Amino acid sequence: MGDSLLHANSELMKLMRRPAGFLLALLLASALWGCGEPDAKPEAAKPTLDGGVVVFPDGSKQLAAFTTEVAKIGGARIIQLTGRVVWDEDRTVRVFPPFAGRVTKILARPGDAVHTGQTLAVLASPDFGQAQSEARRAQADVELATRNLNRIRELHGAGVLPTKDLQAAEADYARADGEMKRAVARAGLYGKTDTVDQTLSLAAPIGGVLVERNINPGQELRQDLQLSGSPAMFVITDPARLWVQLDASERDLALLKKGLRVTLRSAAWPKETFTATIDAVADAIDPTTRTIKVRGSVDNAARKLKGDMYVSAEVESGSEPALQLPSKAVFLLGDKYYAFLDDGPRRFRRVEVKVGADSGGAIELLGGLVAGQKVVVEGSLFLLRIQRQLETGAPV
């Protein structure tokens, strides 16, 4: 290679002595210089690990991948829950048959508005006929006891019968009268007592809307339907006011109190919200799901919410505002949450944090950071990968 360069340099000097060959000489010189060994590029500095802290060298291009933000106190704490809308049990009644029988007429359908005392269905019931018969027999017993008492009073007044006979007659009358009142009252709850026709009319105990019917014409009904877990014959409620049952976690328990305002959202009405109020918080935690039941009431005058409809809820707690960060700044590792703290120039330290509710892209921080600290909000997972590689000795 050295002899070739000497020969080429000799030829270059000859060309430079010719005016026309000056440009050609420059081109040849460039080619010769290109034959030399190229300069090696210096290797870029890589991040290092200093006691668990990822340290980047000055001027590292990887720093452009990270964006930090200061942790600060946010607004009022928002708790997000899920649940469903159910009938208001204070305004709902389920009708079960008081006597066994066969359905002969159905006089109301789901969706009908009913008033108190309105007949919903008619049953032919031998059991109710027996109750009517007992009432009639009790009435006859009272008439007989009354006549007997009047006769003994006359004889006692004439001195024919002793006082003990009068007292026995009065006792017999009292027993007959009491049994008559009981039998008549029992049969009178469900129908007529002046005849024995076995016709049982099922009346609406309250006014409202008939929302459910679970009988058919000719169906045989038993008296123990409620005890056997069978559905009610009819369900009547006032759908203008509903209950909402929410599932809360143990960490939210201290923030949930009676009277707090709840904002409900439903997939059926994505552009609308509904306002509810917490009425009660359960005294026990479900041992299987580890959730606690929270009940609220919601006005439903427009009838847009339906029974058993799923909803999401946001509860604005009455506690002090909490520290907040963008949700993307926090990541889950195992069963714990972490964030990367800006620990000085080009230094990032992973810290464990305790989180609260996540709402509107912001997450509450209940521990691990204080207000004013800078936290990585963009690139935290990339930073985690670099840290893992440095810990294992893998190339970064």
What are the defining features of this structure?
single chain, 5 helices, conserved putative lor/sdh protein from methanococcus maripaludis s2 fold, 396 residues, alpha+beta, Helix Hairpins, elongated, six-stranded antiparallel barrel
Written overview of the protein:
With about 400 residues, this protein is an alpha+beta fold. It is about 25% helix and about 35% strand. It contains five helices and 24 strands. It has helices at about 1-15, 20-35, 125-155, 165-190, 380-390, and strands at about 50, 55, 65-70, 70-75, 80-85, 90-95, 100-105, 115, 120-125, 200-205, 210-215, 220, 235, 240-250, 260-265, 270-285, 290-300, 310-315, 325, 330-335, 335-340, 345-360, 360-365, 375-380. Strands 1, 2, 4, 19, 20, 21, 22 and 23 form an eight-stranded antiparallel sheet that branches. A six-stranded antiparallel barrel has the order 5-14-17-16-15-18. The protein has a four-stranded antiparallel sheet with strand order 6-13-11-8, with no helix packed on it. A hairpin with a 4-residue loop joins strand 21 (about 335-340) and strand 22 (about 345-360). Helix 3 (about 125-155) packs antiparallel against helix 4 (about 165-190).
Helix content: 25-40%
Q: What is the CATH superfamily of the largest domain?
A: Helix hairpin bin
Name the structural class: alpha+beta
Count of β-strands: 24
Strand content: 35-45%
Return the CATH architecture of the largest domain: Orthogonal Bundle
Q: Uncertain spans, ≥5 residues at pLDDT below 50?
A: 20-34
Overall number of structural domains: 4
Rg, rounded, reads 45 Å
Element pattern in H and E? HHEEEEEEEEEHHEEEEEEEEEEEEEEEH
**Total number of helices:** 5
The CATH topology of the largest domain is given as Helix Hairpins
What is the level 1 CATH name of the largest domain? Mainly Alpha
